[in-house]
Every structure is written in C-alpha cells, then in structure tokens.
Specification:
2 copies of one chain form a homodimer.
Chain A lengths: L2 H12 L4 H9 L10 H13 L3 E8 L3 E8 L1 H12 L11 H7 L6 H26 L12 H29 L8
Antiparallel strand pairs in A: 1-2
Chain B binds a DNA duplex (28 and 28 nucleotides) through helix 3 and strand 2.
Chain lengths: 184, 184
DNA sequence: TGTACCATGTAATGGGTTACATGATTCA
DNA sequence: TGAATCATGTAACCCATTACATGGTACA
C-alpha cells in the first residue's frame, strides 16, 4: 500500500516536525485509524528525503543534541494532494480474532459462548467510555473549515463503530438466550 | 498473534479437509473476518503437523494426484479449546486509509472533501447489498445449537458494521453541508 | 543527581501478499 | 483438446513489531 508515506506527508503538510513528534501524533491524534512506531518512521523519512518529497534542517537543542526538523517539498505536496483527492477502496476486510472465535463457538457450551461474548462486550463498552471522554473535550462541533473538525469526524467515527459493535454483541446475546434460557 | 493456527484448528475441529479446501473456506465463510492464501496455509500446516496438533493421510484422486487430508489430533483439540474459551482483547486498532484521508481533508476544498466522502459511502452501500443478499439465504434465524447459527451471527456483525459506517458517513456529509451549502 | 522525557537510529523476527512453479482432473 | 478447477509447494518482497542500542535535556 505505502500508506505510511501519505500519513507522514499529511502531517508535514500541516506543519514541520521531527520524527519524534510524528511518533507522538501516531500515538494520539491518529491512533484510532493509523499507527507507526519510530522504528518504522525513521527509515521511511530517510526514503522520502531521497525521493525529494521532504527535506530537513538540523536544529541544535541545548548545546549538543541534534534534531531533524522535517518539512514537505513542493513535489511532496503535489503527491500528497493527488492521494488526498483520490478514491481508496476498502482493502482486505480487517482481521478480527473475536469474530473468528465466535464463528467457531458452536463447539462451546452455552455458558462458555455467552462468557466470551460478554467479555468482548465489556471491553468495547470500556472503549466507548474512553472515546466519549475525548469527545466531551469538544464543547460544540467545530466549524468545518478548521482542522479540529476532522479530529471531530474521525473521533465520531470511532464512537459510532464501537457503539455498533456493542449493539451487535447485545443482539448476539439476545439471540443466544431467546428461548428463555438462563443468562450468565 | 499466531491466530492462523487457531483458524486452521477450528476448521479441522469441524471436519477433516485439505489445504486447498481451507483456502476456499477463507475465501468464503471466513472472509468477513479472517483470510489466508494457500501460500501461507501450506507452510503453517507443515508446522502444525510437526507440533503434533494435526495429522494427515494421503488420498489418491484419479490415478496419480495425491491430496493430503488433514485432521485434528487430541492435542490439537485441546489447544483449540483453550483458545476458544479465553478472552482475546482487541489488538491494535484496524488501519483505515479512508479515515486517514478524512483526517487530512482540511487541506481540500469543500467539493473535494464531499466527493471523497460520497465515493466511500457508495462503496459501503454496495458492500451492504452484497451482505444482505447473503443474509437472505437464511430463511429464518437458525437455532443456536447449529453451526449455521454462528455463520448468521458473524454475517449480521458484518452488516451492522457496514450500516454503522454508512450512518457515520451520512452524518459527516450532513455536518459538512449543515450551513445550507450546496451538495455535490 | 536521578528520573522522565527528548531524540535517533538498527537488527531480528513475524506475518502476509504476490509471483513463481508444477502438474492432474473433470467436463464440455 | 482446451478451459476451469483441483492440488501443492517455494521465493521474493513488503509491512510492521519488538528488541537492541545510544545519548542528551529539563526539572525537581
């Protein structure tokens, strides 16, 4: 795919930063839909410099420590823009270990199956709580020109994804217990 | 993760089959939540035989063609059962190129942003149509003891996931156009 | 002075895809 | 007899994670 390239170009298209800063972005604002560790970022940066899509200047922090402040080049902006406006079709369906487990749950007892579903439900409910907490940081919906608006959209997407998952799990529990059998 | 191992054990726990059969299962019944190509399956089968979790006997088709019919061993069943009843927490958030694109869509024009959202919406709507078609194959909900019941649950999960995604995309469109600006 | 954080890199390994490679069987 | 499908394998490559490795800065 080579999508990491565009994630980096996207970040640098907003503002110049170091590889370390990027790693932090991946851990925070991008976390719900993309991630990369520094061990993947640094080699990619080297490559993008070689391709002329980004460049850097060295800044001295304190008296010795060198940091590389990367910025995007015109060529980089051009390639980013191309990616940003084109349609990217859904790649292979995301792998989901729980769904695999549920698919094979016909080999489990009634109680065992319900337990794995409830365990999963609990985890997604906790995830929603974390996301709602982040959501509450937005007082009101930001205007769509501002870049906080895209933060808002992707966060909303994560909340809705998790809520749908919980709804599904609750439906599964209902289906399993529909004949008046005991709940766990 | 090593989840492929359990996908294979799960299949063989139901019935004996060849590597080729497994590849077909991955392309059909497992497709919405796990996938593996034959080039990944065959080496894994070799490994599982070496570990004593599965075994095979060679069958002759026609007059020459050898096929390996794999079956699960007692040890294999034991390890599968352990996995099948234990909780597997959500691994890293699934990567999603479209969400990345949307996150950076503050650099696009109003029309460009709406276009990428509409394109995405169309694709997910088409996906729903395919899934609903499969869904209609079930006359009524299978009883929860039968293994078609788990087929039903995971398919329902896929439908609900896609519907939630469409709802989210529609919400995004509404948010982008909420000030009475023209739709594309 | 010690601890948390800033900052950058490489190596080994795992997981997965695409391509390469071969050959038999079935059915029209 | 040719095309679709059955059937099994390996090699090269890409993407990503974990671990290894180093050292500086800021602040209490």
């Amino acid at each position: 795919m080579g999508t990491l390239k565009y994630a980096i170009l996207g970040l640098l298209n907003r503002k110049s930063m170091t590889g370390y800063d990027m790693a932090k972005e991946f851990e925070t604002s991008l976390f719900e839909f993309w991630n990369a560790k520094h061990s993947q970022i640094y080699p990619e940066l080297k490559l993008l410099v070689k391709k002329g899509l980004i460049e850097y200047k060295i800044e001295i922090v304190g008296s010795i420590l060198e940091k590389k402040l990367y910025s995007i080049t015109e060529q980089g902006r051009k390639e980013f823009k191309e990616w940003a406006v084109s349609h990217h079709s859904m790649k292979a369906v995301p792998k989901d270990e729980f769904r695999l487990q549920l698919f094979f749950s016909d080999s489990l007892t009634y109680e065992e199956r319900l337990k794995v579903i409830y365990d999963q439900l609990r985890e997604h409910q906790e995830k929603i709580a974390v996301l709602e907490e982040k959501m509450s940081k937005f007082g009101k919906i930001p205007p769509c020109q501002k870049d906080e608006f895209t933060d808002y959209m992707v966060l909303l997407g994560a909340v809705m994804r998790e809520k749908a998952c919980c709804e599904w799990l609750e439906t599964c529990i209902d289906l399993c217990t529909r004949d008046g059998e005991p709940k766990v």
